Amino acid sequence: MNAALQAIPQIDSPQDSRALRTALGQFATGITVVTTRAADGAFVGLTVNSFSALSLEPALTLWSLRCSSPSLPVFEKAERFVVNVLAEAQVEVSRRFALPLADKFDGVAHAENAWGLPLIHGAAAWFECRTVSRQFAGDHCLFIAEVERFTLSEAAPLLFHAGGYFALGSRL
Prior knowledge:
Blueprint: H1 3-6, H2 17-24, E1 29-30, E2 32-37, E3 43-48, E4 52-55, E5 60-66, H3 72-77, E6 80-85, H4 91-98, E7 110-112, E8 118-120, E9 125-137, E10 140-152, E11 159-161, E12 164-166
InterPro entries: Flavin_Rdtase-like_dom, NADH-dep_flavin_reductase, Split_barrel_FMN-bd
Keywords: Oxidoreductase
Domain Flavin reductase like: 24-167
């Protein structure tokens, strides 16, 4: 075995959830806030870093939500949602939507799209989506959605790595 690899501890059991979480944290991601509207008209949103492009033809995205999330029933019933890709300057927005607050939108500048769903001002990009599939896997629900409309801004995205927020570095 390579001497450099010998110095790296190996964990044989994926049941060591803390170690697995730390290892998964080595994969840097962007940060999004996924928003929709509940049946009673209230806006719902939460911080998500599991967002991913799935397909270009057709234009599909994927994100996942923990099965124990109080927001799961709302997203299961929602036909549409918006993925707001947060910009570097939106760390506090990410933190706010990660908390169990009664009104996460209070003090957060936003507008409504054509379907009455919240678009967070200042985001790096917005993907307005229609759910085409939901599937339970492990302790999460996977949402696959068609991108019906998207908008791109000039803002650099907010990044998340090893439990912390980062700004985009220089291009290599």
